[in-house]
Amino acid sequence: MRIRRPRWPRTRAGRRRLLWAVMAGCVLALLPATWLRLATADRLRTTADVPRTEVAVVFGAGLWHGKPSPYLAHRLDAAAKLYRAGRIEAVLVTGDNSRADYDEPDAMRAHLTEHGVPDRRIVGDYAGFDTWDSCVRAKRIFGVDRAVLISQDFHIRRAVALCQAAGVDSYGVGVAAEHDVTWYYGGTRELFAAGKAALDAVFRPDPRFLGPREPGVARALAAGR
């Protein structure tokens, strides 16, 4: 079976229609990213000026040999800094534990305790399989109404927009990172992830796993420092 190669339009009108089609495709592709910027324009802060909030949510970012990846460690270090400064009272760590040999939340908990956050102040969400799932579960399972979200700068806008859509009043702290291969990959990935984020915000699907409500965050907040 021969595959016909696309041909360049022969007429000026055909070339004009093709140009308009390409331009329209580019605009549609950029709309979700534009929405993310507009939706989060006044919601990004630093560890120094983020509003005092009871709960911080830290999103998983992979493990290396059972330990948080450097990117995840930077997120956790920012959460520990906020706790030590008295700007948050509890940390919800949300990540992937779909396999017995891969446990992001417990690795995140261990890192936080090593950096001065008491274990009783840390709550694990073991079904945070993607950003939307983590935001929905923070609201519907753990009862979080307001939170500081912590992630890398290339991901934080999507996290804030999705948590806002899920009903969590959110501010984001974007942790700076070295502009290495991982950073460029993450930034490129966000261009495509923005489209899914827009669909999630509009249609609001249930997370992959929901389950019963958990009192972990309330207990963490009730525990003394």
Topology:
Layout (H helix, E strand, L loop, with lengths): L11 H28 L4 E2 L9 E5 L3 E2 L2 E2 L1 H15 L5 E5 L9 H11 L7 E4 L5 H10 L5 E7 L3 H11 L2 E7 L5 H23 L12 H7 L3
Parallel strand pairs: 1-8, 2-5, 2-7, 5-6, 7-8
Antiparallel strand pairs: 3-4
Share of helix, binned: 40-55%
Distance between the termini: 72 Å
The rounded Rg comes to 20 Å
Estimated structural class: alpha/beta
Structure notes:
- The chain has helices at 12-39, 70-84, 104-114, 131-140, 156-166, 181-203, 216-222, and strands at residues 44-45, 55-59, 63-64, 67-68, 90-94, 122-125, 146-152, 169-175.
- The chain is built from seven helices and eight strands.
- Helix 1 crosses helix 6 and helix 5 runs parallel beside helix 6.
- Mean pLDDT is 87; it is low at 24-28.
- The strands form two sheets. It has a six-stranded parallel β-sheet with strand order 1-8-7-2-5-6, sandwiched between helices.
- It is of the alpha/beta class and 225 residues long.
In short:
The chain has seven helices and eight strands.
Features:
225 residues; 6-stranded parallel beta sheet; alpha/beta; 47% helix; DUF218
